[in-house]
């Protein structure tokens, strides 16, 4: 598969490609910059893949060659069971993104490593004002990654969206509802949520084989997107739903399929139905020789569904941007769900309180809204596990979280967010096996939901299945286009348990969830193992000032999260070495 990114910086088709000398000079500029925040191994990784590509040997760039030639692994390396190369590639992508946002804004050459590949791409910088003209030819130009990149606005502004939407939604939901002539409330059965119309895909090759593949791809895309419950999927086969899709945020998904010998190209674009503007477009290339057609259809459809419909996906980004400016009265409940995902960006206790109140009001207004019940349950879990809202006179009990999760599952047993909430409530009740069984069921329903995959992976890891669970986490960090600090903190725990404390600190620093007490505890244990006593002292001071008494019962807190006694003891060792007094029993 050949992939290149549709990001903020683009290639002007009429511009000549960068020369080898320009590419090498740009590589040196990046590696020498303090804003390229990556360890030595990652820098060697980047240099290796750039030099191999410039030398015309890009076909040799595989996970195995990187592991053996850059990381020094032996011939037994297996990329299927060892995620080291994928994790490092994700770290390089984030470091490059940061570099081009800060120090490299005006650089003439852009080096990228697209998601799903290790072969870099080289582009000339084009200013943002060219975006509109380029978008008008959505099915032309370079092939692009099917998964959206992490947009800069997500990194710097999504917490503000949570505050804005939380406050606006809470205010609106408190207002009297629209009533009919006899005084009864209307439109209270379910809230408005975005609608996506999947149009029949266009067969550009017009052969019997291409017609079959085109129909199959369209069906698979509908099936995969329908598993995300934060969006309603309709087709032209349902005229009633199609008419309803003209109200509120509504989108249309178009696809074009072309066969050229043994190559398949799927072109996808997402448009706003209100003005037919293109919100997002990507192309997807695959070889018919290397995949069975059914497998190829499923793989392509899964990538499209993940890009479009997952939390922080293309539809989320479009709606969050729109609703930050104005939230229509009849979209407040949906805005509460956007606010929840905004809160997830930094797990801040102040944002948490606003979002929880918003979701409580949404479930009162729409008691059959399964997703709102699921997200509300998870805010209750967060209140317990992160020690939020300590000043409340009546602390939220685990039972309240359980009740909300059960309600969500009863309303929609196929809603993976509801099952995710149920998994967490069971886990924190100490029913580990039952929790993992629910997580496995949710993952089977929608393995393309990266939020669910990451949380399920973390539960697997903390239950002792570190290799499998941490692999899920690393895939989530790679595939999720939104803020992934929570999952980066989880990968810090993975590295800690492996004994790679320097790598654990790097993951923790990337996560940077400074307002979250558990993040501070993870960092504290890592600093203890690294012997960084001064920094550990600062973390202890913060915890003592902001969550008084939390460290006094830290053994119980560790046991609440980490299942195996030997793993608990390993983590407690780091806390002791950081200066925390932990009783032996």
Automatic annotation (TrEMBL):
InterPro entries assigned: TPR-like_helical_dom_sf (IPR011990)
Top-rank taxon: Bacteria
Source organism (scientific name): Rhizobium fredii (Sinorhizobium fredii)
Keywords attached to this entry: Plasmid
Protein name: Tetratricopeptide repeat-containing protein
């Amino acid at each position: 598969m050949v992939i290149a990114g549709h990001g903020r910086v683009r290639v002007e088709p009429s511009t000549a490609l960068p020369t080898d000398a320009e590419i090498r000079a740009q590589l040196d500029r990046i590696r020498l910059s303090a804003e390229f925040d990556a360890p030595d191994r990652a820098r060697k990784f980047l240099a290796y893949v750039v030099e191999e590509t410039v030398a015309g040997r890009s076909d040799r760039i595989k996970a195995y060659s990187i592991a053996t030639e850059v990381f020094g692994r032996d011939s037994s390396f297996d990329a299927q069971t060892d995620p080291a190369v994928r994790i490092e590639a994700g770290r390089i992508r984030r470091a490059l993104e940061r570099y081009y946002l800060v120090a490299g804004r005006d650089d003439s050459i852009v080096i990228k490593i697209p998601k799903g590949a290790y072969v870099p791409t080289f582009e000339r910088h084009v200013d943002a004002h060219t975006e509109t003209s380029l978008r008008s030819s959505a099915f032309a130009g370079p092939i692009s990654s099917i998964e959206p990149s992490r947009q800069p606005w997500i990194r710097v502004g999504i917490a503000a969206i949570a505050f804005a939407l939380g406050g606006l939604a809470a205010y609106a939901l408190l207002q009297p509802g629209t009533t009919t002539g006899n005084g009864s409330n209307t439109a209270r059965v379910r809230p408005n949520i975005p609608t996506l119309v999947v149009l029949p895909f266009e067969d550009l090759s017009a052969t019997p084989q291409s017609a079959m593949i085109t129909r199959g791809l369209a069906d698979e895309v509908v099936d995969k997107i329908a598993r995300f419950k934060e969006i309603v999927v309709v087709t032209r086969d349902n005229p009633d739903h199609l008419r309803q899709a003209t109200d509120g945020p509504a989108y249309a998904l178009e696809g074009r399929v072309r066969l050229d010998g043994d190559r398949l190209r799927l072109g996808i674009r997402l448009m706003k139905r209100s003005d037919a503007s293109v919100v997002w477009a990507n192309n997807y290339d695959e070889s018919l020789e290397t995949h069975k057609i059914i497998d190829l259809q499923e793989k392509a459809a899964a990538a499209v569904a993940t890009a479009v419909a997952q939390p922080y996906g293309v539809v989320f980004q479009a709606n969050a941007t729109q609703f930050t400016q104005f939230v229509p009265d009849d979209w407040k409940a949906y805005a509460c769900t956007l606010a929840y995902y905004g809160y997830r960006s930094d797990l801040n206790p102040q944002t948490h309180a606003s979002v929880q109140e918003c979701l409580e009001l949404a479930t009162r207004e729409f008691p059959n809204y399964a997703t709102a019940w699921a997200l509300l349950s998870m805010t209750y879990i967060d209140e317990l596990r992160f020690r939020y809202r300590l000043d409340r006179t009546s602390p939220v009990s685990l039972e309240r979280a359980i009740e909300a999760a059960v309600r969500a599952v009863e309303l929609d047993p196929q809603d993976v967010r509801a099952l995710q909430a149920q998994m967490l409530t069971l886990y924190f009740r100490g029913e580990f096996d039952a929790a993992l069984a629910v997580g496995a069921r949710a993952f089977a329903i929608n393995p393309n939901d990266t939020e669910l995959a990451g949380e399920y992976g973390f539960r697997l890891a903390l239950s002792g299945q570190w290799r499998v669970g941490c692999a899920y986490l690393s895939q989530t960090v790679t595939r999720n286009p939104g803020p992934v600090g929570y999952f980066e903190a989880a990968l810090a725990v993975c590295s800690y348990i492996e004994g790679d404390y320097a790598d654990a600190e790097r993951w923790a620093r990337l996560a940077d969830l400074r307002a979250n007490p558990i993040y501070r505890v993870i960092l504290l244990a890592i600093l203890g193992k690294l012997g960084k006593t001064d920094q550990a002292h600062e973390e202890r001071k913060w915890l003592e000032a902001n969550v008084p008494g939390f460290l006094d019962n830290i053994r119980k807190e560790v046991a609440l999260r980490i299942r195996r006694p030997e793993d608990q003891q390993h983590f407690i060792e780091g806390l002791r070495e950081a200066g925390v007094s932990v009783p032996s029993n």
